[in-house]
Amino acid sequence: MRFNKNIPLVLKVYLLAISIFFVFRVVLFCTELHRINFDEVAVWTIIQAFVMGLRFDVVISGYILLLPALVLLTQGITNTQNTVVSTILFYWIFIFFSVGFIISSGDIPYFNQFFERFTMDAFQWVENWEFVLSMIAQEPSYFLASLPFILLEVIFFVLLKRIFHSKEAKPVVINIYLNVFVSLLFVSLMFLGIRGRIEKKSPIRVGTAYFSNNAFLNKLGLNPVFTFMRSYLESKDSRNQPIDLMDKELAISKVREYLQIDSKEFISPIARNVVPDTVLEKKPNVVLILMESMSAAKMSRHGNPHNITPFLDSLSTNSMYFDNFYTSGKHTHNGVFSSLFAFPALYGRHAMKQIRSYNGIGSTLQEIGYTTMYFTTHDEQFDNVGGFLKANGFEYIVSQKDYPRREVKTALGVPDDYMFRFSISTINEVLKTDKPFFATFMTASDHGPYYIPEYFSPKSEGIKNKIVEYADWSLKKFIEQSSKQPWFDNTIFIFIADHGAPISSTYEVPLAYFHSPFVVYAPGRIESKKIYQDMGSQIDVYPTIMGLIQEPYTNNTLGIDLLKEKRTYAIINNNDKVGILDTAYFCIMGKEKTSLYHYKQGDKTDYYDKEPQKAEEMSEYAKAFLQTYQEVLLNKQTSLKNNF
């Protein structure tokens, strides 16, 4: 009986595939070198991350190769060979690994943007695939990410062909029983590789990769195909929809206590009437600017050394400014939804995909006589924003369809400063109705594909700093143009980020992706300059605006007026993890474990075991708010229409 030559064949394919996954990991590592402080991180820790990566690569390779290996080993034992079968196995291996390499290639720019390995969240925009593809095509850095895939795909095909067509080794006669034993042993090792661990309690999980205090190196060890498949399986798990974090009645009771709600006037358990001490004779206009990716970490006041936001920094010292303000999620749709409707993000869900009624700021202001507008640089249908807002009190949606075609420069539409310039005449036209206005702006320039108009000359180095400088300049130009309008002195301007950017990554949930500026600028109405140190959340924007304009309304949200009430904790959502913050502690609530950090000092020590009561208090707060929002959704209580 000949020696089973197909064992070395399978091993060669293993090594080839793992080598290519390794190259993708090296490329990712090189694009994120700025996250490594080599004075604090030992070389051995970096090596461990790559070793961890090898473990996950073996898992994915094992799944893909299991069926081909069983067929090949059976052929080797029986000393049979079939050309058709070999061809089928070749293309099975080539196609499935190619899909894995495509995911690994896409994972690099995805990680650069979101500081997360590839998951189902990457497909939240599948309905807007034309928009996404054009955005990718117009940004060189995204296109460059495909080059490693093309090169490695060609190498994989050539070498795989060579492996399958290699000449037979010199036959060696061995005992068939030994041959069967060796083959079974090899398959057993494959199953062990797929399981990823020898411990009985649990196979390899995403949490297995978190071996160090360095958030980037922990994530580097993951395989994006693994994280994608896990997120897919979890999305199909009925336990994830709806969420079940705590007893719903207990959650609602706690939230009512947190928000000091005594009223039982409404069917909605969170609804309460808010009556200001005084009502203004003239209703002020409100402009809310959601700044794309404008992390607080980009500002000089928060330690950025590059002076790329001189206007925003200056504005923050001459206005109301909230130092500890956080966005709800890490996507634009999270920022738009939470700011305008005052509800948190629920893990990886897209709140605006399905149109439903909310008592958001649009409908509330519309009912009291405001004209409501939403401006965006690009297609309003992206993320279903246009339709959702139209169904919830926004009268005018100004988007790419309204701008001259010649001014549309990229897939993200017109540059920020053009959108602002265009809006002035639109606002002036609306004001002919003699009604106050509420205008929301969603900027886009600080997002690839990057475009800097030829009339702006940045002083910074590097496109990412240059584009921030341009975005900041656009804000300045808008205020300058607005100051010449008759409505300026009666207007409150509010600046926040839709989400931040993963500039720093001390923890596995990057706080820079959620820490946002919150500026209230109203030179004609608010003279005082004040810095607020209490916690603030994006879900508090709408109630705070209502407090600023001093209008009575029914608050059917989870937000509060930050000028009159105090938020105990801010809740941030990192898709699969929830962060909870106060001015000293940062709690990360994952599905597998909960951690507690003293984040203001950048301390990487997990204090969960030392301060479990604090961690439990923070976790309970987040669970209560998220579970209550879930119940309000399920019971269709997001709108008070017909709910009295």
Helices and strands, with pairings:
Elements: H1 6-31, H2 43-78, H3 83-114, H4 129-137, H5 140-144, H6 146-164, H7 176-195, H8 215-220, H9 224-236, H10 248-258, E1 272-274, E2 285-291, H11 310-317, E3 320-326, H12 332-341, H13 361-367, E4 371-376, H14 385-390, E5 396-398, H15 416-430, E6 437-442, H16 463-482, E7 491-497, E8 518-521, E9 530-537, H17 541-549, E10 553-555, E11 570-573, E12 578-581, E13 586-589, E14 594-597, H18 612-634
Parallel strand pairs: 2-6, 2-7, 3-9, 4-5, 4-6
Antiparallel strand pairs: 1-10, 3-8, 7-8, 11-12, 12-13, 13-14
Helix pairs in contact: 1-2, 1-3, 1-6, 2-3, 2-7, 3-6, 10-18, 15-16
Can you identify the CATH class of the largest domain? Alpha Beta
Query: Please, what is the average pLDDT?
Result: 91
| Distance linking N and C termini | 83 Å
Largest sheet: 8 strands, mixed
Number of domains: 2
Order of strands across the main sheet:
5-4-6-2-7-8-3-9
- Specify the helix fraction band: 40-55%
Taken as a percent bin, the fraction of beta residues is 5-15%
DSSP helical segment count = 18
CATH architecture of the largest domain: 3-Layer(aba) Sandwich
Q: What structural class do the secondary elements suggest?
A: alpha/beta
The name CATH uses for the topology of the largest domain is Alkaline Phosphatase, subunit A
Oligomerization: single chain
Question: Which regions are unreliable across 5 or more consecutive residues at pLDDT < 50?
Answer: none
Task: Please tell me what the overall shape is.
Answer: globular
Radius of gyration: 28 Å
Total DSSP E strands: 14
The CATH homologous superfamily of the largest domain: Alkaline Phosphatase, subunit A
